[in-house]
Write a structure and sequence with these properties.
The chain has eleven helices and 15 strands. With 476 residues, it is α+β, with helices and mostly antiparallel strands. The chain starts with a helix and ends with a helix.
Length: 476
């Protein structure tokens, strides 16, 4: 205000002294308040940028391999701590986070189970049989849940087909893809975590072997004659193997392990056997066509399982087969072709456009050693879906520390309340953990731990991460 200094000078000396004292005290109070908040800020920064960073960089456990780490605030996206956050690592099953993000953007409430259309066929189109028959033309969508033993409670497509009681014809499916992914280990072909991919999966593309009474039984039954019981095996480790290029299977299990023993073996050339297995199960004859047939252009979907049920199986049990098939399904819905490479390009060019350190992403499950992803990219993807999805739904899709899935025995919270919701990723020399952390303050933090190039068990890495994540919870 003009002339305020002159007006102050006119005040009596005693009043001016008191006014100066009040102003001085106000200035000191503001300064101390500012100093206190600044000190608190520096204290938090000191823990996350110095103590935590040094803890990770100087860890004697992590020093036995290569470790990357990134921690951000979920609400603001602000970086809190980073150690080699921009370096690329083999992600193993952390790749499923990218698959989940794609599914959330593309698929609806339920999986499209089959593309189907019915049509009358004349006698001149079929050898033998009736003069006119009603036929269903079925095109595979890649749905992994069809007759899958883990989804017995959700089989609306099968129940619908079973009620029709008509002849079944099938289109092999749309789009080019191989039965295995690029960079998969060739000698995993007989392991149940590595089934072949196909357009029309049946029974999860796996034969289930069970000991019932005095003999082994195969489901589906068509494979019963392919079993060979090799007698008791030395030691305690069961051995169930399939020939590389056929469905002949050998079983060796200690006699004291027979009771209740069950094993899954991937089917060889599952795509070619799908229609036969489906016809067997439905009790339908397979017609022999006189001439090549064309499926009418107008088709409709039969929907199957609610998506969250399938996503939880993929994320909690780290199911590779489901992850691969879901990514193919995304391609079918979005691009009208079961082309994994194309849906990956679409996701990178649209969903993840502008994200830092674009990855080398080649499959849906993370079985491939060709995948390369940075911790910073993973936290960016995790934040994207955190901002787009209801928190309760999103956290339910991830294993909860000390409670469920691959985290059931690790990262437990106080009094059994989980504070870590994250996806693991493991293969030889690789262990990763990326997801969400509920801090004691109530904040949600997003983190990615990526460990590569170590030898031996990953238990020491889990123990060290558990210690660090609990410290972050207390300080966050």
């Amino acid at each position: 205000m003009p002339g305020w200094k002159a007006n102050i000078k006119k005040l009596p000396d005693i009043v001016r002294m008191k006014l100066r004292l009040v102003l001085h005290l106000v200035w000191v109070a503001l300064f101390l308040s500012s100093l206190a908040s600044c000190t608190a800020g520096r204290y938090g920064g000191r823990f996350f940028r110095r103590v935590l960073q040094s803890d990770i960089q100087d860890s004697p456990v992590f020093a036995r391999g290569v470790t990357g780490f990134h921690l951000v605030d979920a609400a603001s996206g602000r970086e809190i701590c980073g150690v080699w956050a921009d370096k690329n690592f083999t992600p193993a099953s952390n790749t499923k986070i990218l698959t989940l993000a794609t599914c959330l953007a593309v698929l609806g409430d339920s999986l499209p189970g089959l593309e189907i259309v019915d049509r009358l066929l004349g006698g001149d189109e079929i050898r033998g049989g009736q003069e006119w028959v009603q036929a269903y033309f079925v095109t595979g969508t890649g749905d992994p849940t069809f007759l899958h033993p883990k989804f017995n409670a959700w089989q609306p497509v099968f129940q619908y087909l079973k009620k029709t009681g008509v002849i079944l014809l099938a289109d092999p499916g749309k789009g080019p893809f191989s039965r295995f992914g690029a960079g998969w280990s060739w000698d995993d072909y007989s392991d149940d975590y590595s089934p072949e991919r196909s357009a029309l999966p049946v029974f999860g593309n796996v034969v289930t072997l069970r000991r019932e009474g005095e003999r082994w039984e195969a489901y589906p039954r068509r494979f019963q004659d392919s079993l060979a019981d090799m007698g008791a095996v030395a030691g305690t480790r069961p051995r169930v193997r399939r020939a590389e290029f056929s469905n002949q299977m050998e079983i060796q299990v200690p006699e004291d392990r027979h009771a209740g023993f069950e094993a899954g073996v991937p089917v060889f050339q599952a795509g070619k056997l799908a229609l036969t297995l489906l016809a067997d199960t439905l009790g339908w004859p397979l017609p022999e066509m006189q001439t090549p047939w064309e499926v009418p252009a107008k088709r409709s979907y039969l929907y199957s399982v609610p998506v969250d049920t399938v996503y939880r199986r993929m994320m909690h049990q780290s199911d590779n087969f489901i992850a691969e098939q879901l990514l193919l399904m995304c391609a079918g819905v979005k691009l009208d072709t079961l082309d994994e490479a194309r849906i990956i390009r679409w996701a990178q060019d649209s969903l993840f456009a502008g994200f830092p350190q674009p990855p080398r992403w080649v499959d849906g499950s993370g079985l491939s050693r060709y995948n390369l992803v940075s911790p910073r990219f993973l936290t960016t993807v995790l934040r994207k879906i955190y901002l787009e999805q209801p928190r309760e739904r999103l956290f339910s899709l991830f294993p909860a520390g000390g409670v469920s899935g691959t985290l059931e025995n690790w990262y437990a919270g106080p009094e059994g309340t989980p504070f870590v919701f994250a996806k693991t990723g493991s293969m030889g020399g690789v262990h990763c953990l990326s997801g969400y952390l509920l801090a004691k303050s109530g904040k949600v933090l997003i983190f990615s731990f990526m460990h590569n190039n170590f030898i031996g068990s990953n238990n020491a890495w889990k123990t060290e991460m558990q210690r660090i994540l609990r410290a972050i919870r207390e300080r966050g």
